[in-house]
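Appendix B. Raw example, untouched.
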Amino acid sequence: MNKRLPICKQILGDLISYDVLGGQSNLTILDYIIGFLIERRIEYYLVPNDDCTKASLFCRIGPAADGGVILSGHTDVVPVAGQDWKTDPFILTEKDNKLYGRGSCDMKGFIACCLASADLFSKAGLKKPVYFAFSYDEEVGCLAGPALARAIKSHYPEKPSMAIIGEPSVMKVVTGHKGICVLKTTISGSAGHSSRIRQEVSAVHVAAGVIRWMEDKMEQLIADGRTDSRFMPPHTTIHAGMIQGGIAPNVIADKCTLYWDIRVIPRDNVREIIAEFQHWCSNYTAELQKKFNGASISTVEDHPPVVPLGTDDDAAVVRLVCKLTGESETETVAYAAEAGQFAEAGFQTVICGPGDIAQAHRADEFVDINQLDKCLAMMDKLCGYLSS
């Protein structure tokens, strides 16, 4: 076991004790991290939100030299309400070589490994720097990632070249994830007796047509060969997750709301798909208004799109992290993350972190201690690489 594992476990316990959920202020856990860095005389910078109730943090350890590596994670977690936890989710509990607690896997385990390696990096005489980058509100839409990546790029005179996002990947090297955009479509029709369905505009019936468009669009993408075999399913998906409308079986619905998402593979552009949908809705609305002038279909983003990640397998960051971890194969994941946002900012990016995504967001979340040990070993080898 790595000699830094005890301090890593201690730090992880401290981090888990801060029950900062996505959407909430993260200043408490941020104060802990700031105190940790101040003790080691590591200069840090903040990227606050508009009202300064939340902030991302970044810092550099090592010289102002090009070619450094960013290690990034998020400080927020998902709720525990309604889940059947056997342990206190905000007290680290060790059992059977596992560490239980909310965020142990997603993704405070990685942040703990970073902080536990701060002294290692500081004392190593690095020739290229390592950067820590910790965000907020990842769990409610990766809201802070773009600003954090841009801040690192603009703040330092040198140019970091790579980023490792420590989402749980069982320490496998992940080169791709899908992007996501969640949308809300509101449909207005005309209320009336259900016997008048041919004379009125049912918002629920219109919603059914909208969902049919989604299914047809998916089939069109496949037929057009817009697939990527690295993903499952190997194409962009469009999915309606919630629908609300109507007041009674015999009343034509004049309102209906649809919540849906688009998960794009790297080669597809979510904005283009939304624009095509809006054009279709415009034509459909014109037809509906021949029956009822007040008919409308309006769509807004429920949160901003998260861009996909599609790093080439022969990229320098892939070769490096495969060497650091001893992995020879790469993977892709179906979930969205901040990795695509760092790549969009100009950093070669992969995902690689301790823990299994299958344990995330569920009761009795845990990270295997061996996973933390492997992550610390990666930090050791990264230190050697940056020192050479």
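End of appendix B.
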